[in-house]
Each structure stands twice: as structure tokens, then as C-alpha cells.
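Many introductory courses stop at the sequence. We go one step further.
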Amino acid sequence: MTSLIDAFVEKIIAHSDYQELDSLYLHNRILALVGEEGVDQETHLKGMIELKDSLLQVAVDNGKVGQLTEERDCLGAEVMNFITPLPSKLNHDFWQTYAQSPQQAIADFYQLSKTNDYIKVAAIAKNIAYQVPSEYGDVEITINLSKPEKDPKAIAAAKQAKASSYPKCQLCMENEGYQGRIDHPARANHRIIRLDLLGQEWGFQYSPYAYFNEHCIFLDRQHVPMQITQETFAQLLEIVDQFPGYFAGSNSDLPIVGGSILTHNHYQGGRHVFPMEKAGLDYSFHFKDFPEISAGIVKWPMSVIRLAGKDKEEVVALAEVIRQAWRHYSDPESDVLAFSQEEPHHTVTPIARKRRGQFELDIVLRDNHTSQQFPDGVYHPHPDVQHIKKENIGLIEVMGLAILPPRLKGELAEVENYLTNQYNEIADYHKAWADDLKASVDISPDNVHQVLQKAVGQVFVRVLEDAGVYKRSREGQAAFHRFLETIGIE
């Protein structure tokens, strides 16, 4: 048994450059942050994050911080900053290690980001995650429970807070070390690795609420909007060359088919093999002017062209030819429209990886035009599946990992009750779907959970099919080939 504050000071010394001689200094700095009453209580806790959480409760009891989650997070990040190196030292150490072993440098930074509670490991563990077989391979389902729901008091406090435009967004480098506030997350323990990306300054950081293994973000030093260009393809391939074992991809740069943050140029990456990567090719071919680049249509519900080659510049050049062709291509017979007057509708979602010594680039064709029948988007989840997923289909979903809203945890429990004829409060928008399940599947209390998980997976596959420009029908694939022929294939 030891006191709470002594246990925490021991952890700081074990995980930082502080030494035993610094223990009194650390003791006093923590007292200044959390108060003096209660820090001497004995504790059995061993984990650093658990000890930090106990100190936050002491701070609340001592009136050093408010009870809102956002207030506690600001202090928690400040406390964990004790074990977080200065940006200059972290970057020096990262690149020094990288010169000997890129894998070790990346692993060290990832471990730090978990140890100092920047990556919310405990919160992420609350997510519901499973796989569902489909004709395209196993798709991945996640119900996102990691981000705490906003307290109404926090929402009210944020409305009353003085407006601030600093940092401009949550992806700006100015977040590094930022204290945080009610309406902006705490970032005192946040660090960014600087990297030269083809002559431009970019940053590399991890995602606090990761959706997959080593979920990271590559961000532009400048606060500039996302834009898919030839430079995008070159940067993505450069990233997968610099970060062994990582994929890198970009959301599209248009509304409806884009991601959640289009105002700051960035890419996502990580060490995860997504269902789309595992998918084989329906059809292989070469583009006439690029004989060294293998190409094919991926067996996937969305419209994906896969390129593979050893020459980065050639892969990039071909990707740009495809992007430019798609940007201006229309086929009204197939409901493919590049423009409405001067409003562009066509862009791509690119995903890069390095496999078997070759650079691989998946180019997903996207179209964001709307119609009277589908005002949310012709290639957006259609109304009959929006009870499960109505948000934009971004990079992660494109690759076969569904990020479903937290509301579904409770709602699906009510659907289970409905399916087993128990008292329930099923949402009206789930009822038709549930009735179809009842009519088509033998359901019992023993299998209802598995039946529902499979059904959610089937809906997600339908979501992806809705987002696919060229459908899997004979007519759809023929239309896909018509587009490819305009570029020249053999």
C-alpha cells in the first residue's frame, strides 16, 4: 500500500525523463493541480491512468476542477503531460530511432500515445465490434460507444462560453499542448511528429478514439481544405513508403461522399487489413499507356479500380489520368452525372498500401449528385437503410468497416425484445425491418442476438451497394467498362 500521490509520482518517474531527485518537485506540482486534501489516501491501484482518474476525483472534491467531463479531461491531460516529452525532444528521438528502425520509432510513439492517455484505450474498449460474412467477404461492424455523450450542462456551458477560433479546427497543429475548453478537446498531452512529405511540412499523430489498430492521422501544416489532386496520390504512396505496414487513405473532397472534416487537408492511416483489401479482382486488365501497371476491378459493392506497380511515379500518373477522366465523365443512361451546370459531382476516395514489394492504390469512384427520388444523394444510403446508417459513407466505411451511431446499442436491444415477443419500446423506423426478419427467420431467445448482428451486417452491405456508382448487375458492370474504355484498356 502506498499513498495515491506517491504512487502517481513513481509512475511519472518510471515513464519519463524525471528522476528520483525530482520526486518532491513532482509531488508539489501535482498538489497545485489537484489540491492537498485526499492525496495521501492509500491505494491498491497500479495503472497510471487509473491513478490519474483517482487524482481527478480528488481535484473535484477539492474544488480544483468542475464535475463536467470536459473540465476533468482538461485537467487529466495536464496531469498526463508530466510523462509526455516536449515536442522537440519527441521529434528528435523519433527520427533518431527511425534512422535505425522505422518500425521501432512508430511503435514507440504509439506506445507513448496510449500510456499518456491520449489514445483513450479504456473508452475504445466499450465499442461493440464484430464481423459478418457476406458475398464480398467478412465485413466489420462497430457501434461507436467510445466518445462520451454530451452532458446537457456541458452543452449549455459551451453555448455561454466566449467564442474562439483558436485552434481553427481539431486537426490544426496548434492543438499540440492546447489546454482545451468546454467546446474544444483537451490537448495538453497531445504530440505531433513532423515529417517532410514531398517538400511540404505535415504532421503524424494518432486518433484519440481509434476505430481500428493504430488508427492515425496525417495532417497538413496549413489549415487548407481537402482537395483530391495528383499530389494526393503521390503523398499517399510516399506515406506508405515511409511507414512500413501502414495503409493511408483520403476521404473524398465533396459533400455527401466526403468525410466529416473537409476544411483541413488530412489523410487517415494505420495498421489494419480492411475487408476491401482482402477482396479479390473481378476482372484484370492493363491501361494502354501504362503497360507496367497491373489494374483490375475489385469484387466489392462500391466501384473500385485497383492499381499495382513498383514505380511510384507511374502509379501516381495513372491514378491522375483516371481521376481526371472520372471528373468529366457522364453517362446519363446509367445515372452518372459529372456536373449539374457548373457544380462538380465526381471525385474519388483513394487508398494506398504497399504489398509484396509493390505500391497498391485503390481508387473508389464517387458521385454526389441528388435527385427528386433521392434528395440525400443518389449514391448515399437510401431511406430504407437509414434507420441503421444515414451518415456520409467516408473512407473507413468504404473499406468495409461500419461506424454505426451509439443510439443503436439501446435501439437494437429493443428490436431483440420485439423479435422475441417481449415488452419493448422499438423505434418506429426499425419496425418494418424487424417485421421482415420475423417473417423470414426462425427466431428464439437463444439466437436472436446472432440473427440481429447478421441482419445489421446485411444492411451495411446494402449501404455500400447504395454508395456504389456502378452496381453489381450485368448492366452496371457493362457501364463500368464503358467508362474504363474511354481511358483505354487492353
